[in-house]
Structures are given as C-alpha cells and as structure tokens.
Amino acid sequence: DDFVSKPFDSGELRARVRTITRLNRYRRLLEERERFEWMIEHADEGYLILDGEQIRYANPRAQTLLNLDEDTLATHPSFLALVDKHFNREPKELWNRWPNLWEETPQGRVETDVTLFLIAPETPTSPVNWLEVTIFGQFRIQESGRLVRLRDVTTLKTGLRDMWSFHTMVMHKLNTPMHMMLGSMELLTMNVHTNISSGEILDLVEMAANGAQRLAAAVNDVIQYATALSTPASIGERLTLGELPALVKEVAGHLELDQVTVQIEAPEEITLVLDSREMESILFELLENAKKFHPQHRPTVTLSATLRNDRVDLKVQDDGIHLSPDQLNRVWLPYYQGERYFTGEVKGMGLGLPLVASIIWEHGGDCRIINREDAPGVIIRLTIPTMREG
C-alpha cells in the first residue's frame, strides 16, 4: 500500500515480496511441524529416536509401552538396558547383531526395515505381552541415529496362535475317523456284487460305526475348543514328560512318518508349563516341516528331552537339508519361507515355526536352530520352563 503514494522502486518491491514469501513459507513449515508433532504425540503406536543405544525421544505411547517415566527419559537411558528389565528379546539371533541389522544380498549389505519382538512372558498373575519393534533402516538420523516404532501386537499374536492351533487340531482329529468311515463304505460299495461273507460285511460296518463314533467325539471336542476362552491353561492340563512319547507317536502316525524316535533322559513326572494341545501343535509343525523339506519326504527324526537347570531342553534333529546363515537368523520371523531359496514349490504362509516360537516365548522359553555338522539336516532346540521352575 505504501507504493501507491510513493515513487515506485522495483528493487525495494522485490525485496519486500521475497521477505513476505519467506515468512509465509516459514509459517507453513511451522504449521506442518505442529500438525506432525500433534500426530506423533497422540499416535496409537510408540515412536523412539535413538542415538546409538540412548533414547533421545519417546512419544507418550512409547513411554507407556516401555513403562518409561519422564524423569528416566530425561537421563537418556539405554534402550536395550531398559527393555531387558521387562521383556525378552526375540529372535535372539537378530537382536545379537544390534545395531548392525543390515541384510546380506548378492549386491552387498543393504539397510532395510527390520522387525523384531519384545515379549513379556505369561505369569500366574499377568497375561503375555507382545511388542513389535520396527527399526527403519532408510530413516537414519545422522550416522548413529535410528527411528524405531513400537506396536502392541498381543491380540494379533495370541489370536493367530489360537487360530493355528485350532486348525491343526481340527485337521488332526477329524481326518482319522473320516478315513475309517470312507474306507469301510468304499470297500462295501466295491464288493456289493461279489461273494462277500456276512462276517466281513459285519466287520466293515463295525469299522464304519467306530469311525462315526470317533468323528462325533472329535466334533464335540472341536466345538468345546472353539467356544473356550483363550486363557492360560489351568492346573491339571499341563503335560508331563511321561506323556510325550505317546503324543509324538500319535502326531507321527497322522503324518505317516515311521522313522521317528523319542529319547527321554529326565524324570517322566516332570511337568512342563505347556498343555497337551500346545505341545501337539508344536510337534505337528516340527515333524511336518521335517517331512516337507526332506528330499524324499521320508525323514529320520530323533527327538530327545533332557533336564537343565529346571528347564527341559527338547531337541528335534532331522536329516533333511542345511539352511543358509540368513535363513537360520530369520526362520522364526512370520512370513519368512526358507524353502523359496530351493524350489519355491512348498505350500504355506511361512507361519509354522514363528507360531511354534510364539508359544515357547510366551511361556518364557527359548528357540534355537542350527545346521547339523555330521550330516545334512537341522537341529531345533526348544528350551521349555517346567512347573518346578515356576
């Protein structure tokens, strides 16, 4: 407006326009920053900014998830030291590489987003708690800074585990009686016009009836399981080591595996923190994996149980194939399928072993996998707490 009554100076006008433009740009940046800060402060997910291991910033949700108060945050505590007070870090193979979490590729090392887990195991007074930790490899803050996201995935993990366990039980419990019924009825149908004796007919009918009765009992079990609440197993449902061989034999028979041996080198009365359904699901997945990845799908599997420091060390050894170091590090992560490096033909979502690990981790146990040194194949070691330890 001043230029209306004054001589026009183009240089002064340009200077004023530049100043106003910069001020407007600065205001917009401030507004965008305020909006961003409001979103972070009110986010349902936790966000951390780390300098090396020190926590430089944590939004309110991250403070809640990590049980971190303002006074402690002001001291810039160590991230790893803080989480170790309340959580177990899994899978340990990847956490042990912290902060060098790059991925080895044919083109060299690549900084990628890495997802890990923090797990507060189930106790008699509190349920399990799962946190998903995502370290964003592409968002580096100077050289040592990292952006980390925390998500509470407890409901997702327990729901996925229950669904998988339910699917395993249904498939296992219903197939056997169904085959008994169908096989008997098929034999009757095929021999309807032949000279089959009344005794043979009676045997086949009895076999079909037994299959129907077992099927009805299995359906009742499925209904009870589906309507039951997802709560920690009650006292009396826990599995003892003495019951393990029969459970292994049952699962191996369902998978048509005839070269599975069990060695119990600990007192049979020792009670695990796992119930029979959880152990059945674990055994089903481990034995199915051994069959799936064996070149002829006829593995020789040895399962042994020993006692160490009031914990059961369950070792499952097969004679299938070796895994690469990267596969060994990531086999416990969801949707990671080691088989894709071999043929790409094995079916599945890559959820079996991660769900095995989720059951073990939730009870405060540990999972390890290594290649055999004496022959092809892998050794899976599950460390399972006992009621004696509790």
Please name the defining characteristics of this protein:
alpha+beta, six-stranded antiparallel sheet, 42% helix, 11 helices, 390 residues, Beta-Lactamase
In short:
This protein has 390 residues and is α+β, with helices and mostly antiparallel strands.
Structural description of this entry:
- With 390 residues, the chain is α+β, with helices and mostly antiparallel strands.
- It has four domains: 2-41; 46-152, PAS domain (Beta-Lactamase), CATH 3.30.450.20; 154-231; 235-390, 2-Layer Sandwich (Heat Shock Protein 90), CATH 3.30.565.10.
- 42% of the residues lie in helices and 23% in strands.
- The chain has eleven helices and 15 strands.
- The strands form four sheets. A six-stranded antiparallel β-sheet has the order 2-1-8-7-6-3.
- A hairpin with a 2-residue loop joins β12 (301-308) and β13 (311-317).
- The longest helix has 37 residues, at 154-190.
- The chain is elongated, with a radius of gyration of 30 Å.
- The chain starts with 9 loop residues before the first helix and ends in a 5-residue tail after the last strand.
- 25% of the residues are buried.
- Mean pLDDT is 82; it is low at 228-236 and 339-350.
How are the elements arranged and paired?
Layout (H helix, E strand, L loop, with lengths): L9 H32 L4 E6 L2 E5 L1 H6 L4 H5 L4 H5 L4 E3 L1 H4 L7 E3 L2 E3 L3 E7 L8 E13 L3 E8 L1 H37 L7 H30 L10 E3 L3 H11 L5 E6 L5 E5 H17 L8 E8 L2 E7 L7 H6 L21 H11 L3 E6 L6 E8 L5
Parallel strand pairs: 10-12
Antiparallel strand pairs: 1-2, 1-8, 3-6, 4-5, 6-7, 7-8, 9-11, 12-13, 13-15, 14-15
Membrane topology: Multi-pass membrane protein
Protein name: histidine kinase
GO molecular function: ATP binding; phosphorelay response regulator activity; phosphorelay sensor kinase activity; protein kinase activator activity
